[in-house]
Amino acid sequence: MSDHAEHAEHAHHHHGKPDFWTHYVFSQDHKMISKQFLITAIIMGFIGMALSMLFRLQLGWPGESFKVLEMFLGDWGKDGILDPNMYLALVTIHGTIIVFMVLTGGLTGTFANLLIPLQIGARDMASGFLNMLSYWFFLASSVVMVASLFIETGPASAGWTVYPPLSALPEAIPGSGLGMTMWLVSIALFIVSSLLGGINYIVTIVNLRTKGMSMGRLPLTMWAILITAILGLLSFPVLLSAALLLIFDRSFGTSFYLSDIFIGGQALEHTGGSPILYEHLFWFLGHPEVYIILLPALGISSEIISTNSRKPIFGYKAMVGSMLAIAFLSFIVWGHHMFLTGMNPFLGSVFTFTTLLVAIPSAVKVFNYLTTLWKGNIVYTPAMMFAIGLVSTFVTGGLTGIILGDSALDINVHDTYFVVAHFHIVMGASAIFGMFAGVYHWFPKMYGRLMNKKLGYAHFWLTVISVYGVFFPMHFIGLAGVPRRYYSNEAFPLFDALQDINVSISMFAFLGGVAQCIFAFNFFYSIFRGSKSSQNPWRSNALEWTTEINPGHGNWVGPIPTVHRWAYDYSKPGADDDFIPQTVPLKAGEEDVH
Amino acid sequence: MINLLIAIVTILAILVVAKVIRVFELSTELKGDNPAEVTASDNKTQATLFVILGLFWLGFVVYSVFAWGPLTLPVSASEHGEDIDGLMTLTWAIIAPAFFITHLLLIYFSYKYYFKKEQKATFFAHSTKLEMIWTTVPTIVLASLIVYGLSIWNEVTSPEPDDAMEVEIYAKQFDWTARYAGADNVLGKSGYRLITSENPLGVSMEDAASADDKIVRGELHLPVGKPVVFKFHSRDVLHSAYMPHFRLQMNCVPGMTTQFHMVPKTTTKEMREITGNDEFDYLLLCNKICGGAHYNMQMAIIVESEEDYAAWLADKKTIAESMAPAEETVVVAEVVEEGAEAPVEKEEEHTEAPASH
Fold this sequence. Notes:
The complex is a heterodimer.
Chain A: H1 2-14, H2 20-25, H3 30-60, H4 67-73, H5 84-120, H6 128-147, H7 178-207, H8 220-251, E1 262-263, E2 266-267, H9 275-309, H10 316-330, H11 345-357, H12 359-373, H13 382-404, H14 407-413, H15 417-447, H16 453-479, H17 499-529
Antiparallel strand pairs in A: 1-2
Chain B: H1 2-30, H2 40-68, H3 79-112, H4 128-156, E1 165-172, E2 175-180, E3 214-217, E4 219-223, E5 228-234, E6 239-243, E7 248-252, E8 258-262, H5 268-275, E9 282-286, E10 298-304, H6 306-314, H7 319-323, H8 328-338, H9 341-356
């Protein structure tokens, strides 16, 4: 530890002015890598969102001509009419980008990198080099995914879950040609990035905590990131193997997933495989992935809600315990995505049982958030607004999970818009709210400046209104029996009455898009022009606010501070202030909560 | 050119907004306010907005149930579907209060406890009693939901009754074909290597059970009140047979047979009366992404009295009949339909050839 520290000290004080390339591009400083992740994720987020706007045009006004479609999509939007194959491609790449590049790579990459060394009291990550590689693999993966939008046969179009045989056979859909190859390459790179990052996060949190920072004194963000990294490490390799087998089936004539197929006028030679095997492998990652996305957001909101309620987080141990329980359960619930694949009904019962158990730790978390707010003294920073928004979306979306996780009920809502509503609210909105909360909260740590609060408020309200305006009505569309991933419902007179809802959904989607422009503007504007931050702008207890306003590589000038208490001593009786930083020693007779 | 102009205008617009904000910020700074610091009036305003918009959100939820609830699926047209609907109602009865209570608390706390200088937050970090309550109560509620849900799941997925009528539902990009088992109620064997344009389902004629099977496209007819077991197949990619009005769905997986059985209990005619829609038809939809025309892979389902059904089916030819040489016209029609693209291309070549000389 001390060697490491001295080395960093040395680098910090005597290295002179780093040049542009080592400082901004090939940086091994966790704070710079965090910014690289965040800015890449913001760009990817805008691309993913723009794709959804394009297909919302089609869904809101099917068959109508929009010049903008031709402008962006060329032949795929000839005469302003979206091509059905391109519709599926847009849906696929939208999902892939948002799930992997924004909410996995972007969310964890940004906040794990920024916060781990700062909150546990370390000079940097255990391996700065692996950390840098993790970002570069992430960037390469993003670039390949975006590049696949520009090839002649179109990007992957089999849905973000890319089930074979559709994803394996270019005869089945044009996007399963080169587009699918690029998708697989991109995801393989992404998994490498995620594993390099994950190993680093775990090693750093376990080994490099400063003196006094016991596991029981870690801020909840650290617990969330630690658990997330373990989840990723255990589940992403399974997705990698699924992707590799799919590459074999596509390119080398193996039959892991393919059997008994007659397509394009001929019987294929593949025998003995099963697409169900792919589904098992995919969802063995796919379900933990939901929590890989969600847990960091929950950790961030725990920290922010406690800080801005000026109150300790209620039930610290229960919060950690419920995250551990959710993480454990997430590995034994994947079958609830496959109730209708013809699996043994008994197995379906087991998965129903384990799935509904997830609701218990989730309920504990919600009630603990509410109790933290209760009798607090709530400061409405934009970060706090988003954290409260997260509690709302987590409740709204989580409750409908009780319906989808129940095998008997799933029969009729599986793969309908009800599912689209559910996961966009509980996973998409909650995670992105957590991410926004984190950005507003730790922006001063990143850039030494504050984001504009008025724009922040406007961003929050417009976003939350459009999230519910878009996704809440989808429950009803799903309950009317409309399948997801339909290019148009015009072939079904029964669904005609729902078209008005689709129009209003599209309107709210565009409003949401405008709201995100406010955020992007505020973000980039504040980097250069935001008002200067003080050292501890939110009057927080956590260790990251004990550094200089603009910490250099190595984080603390002088020795790393020692920690004497947990991170949540807010409004403690007997203290003069309503917060006591972790570095303040316990007074004689004062009880450490942990 | 237009695109370039749009880009320039967009950039200019952003710059203008930036300037306006800057001016605004400078003016607030002149007044001595920090544009990032949360003030007492901010806390009050945002807390008030939480109440107004929060209650509006709850109102919107209630409104939407009345406005859009009637657009959701009508009562179940199958027997097992009624049990599923019952479970759904019970689940809503649990979810809805949980939703409203947590949201009301969230809204109330957000307003009641907004920051005031003289106010001090209560140091309340832990209470085993409270935590036990909100671990135990959800556990009990969910345990009962699990037990009730699984009892219905077990019923729905139990083996079909012996007298259930066998119908094969055969999926390919992008249509459905049904095969009725005929008088012996046994579907003849089939395999994907036997598929030809005359034999699109690859039915084996060596199997004696195949001869009386009947292949039907376009409409699926079912007798009311009689158990039917569907055997699902796909010849190319994953599809999912979704019959929303019957609360029935099952994936069609290449290389594998899946099944689902049900008893239709409401005829199409009765359901037209229930829904007040004279053109109502039950639907079989594809509900697993399967390619470009996924959105239009459908088949109408007609539920009718046993006599009507028998009369309709009697009209259809068995496989043995349609394969017989005397019925060649029918077979030819099939060939043309299956291979529609090939002859057309040839013709085009013919017509184009002289022009190019």
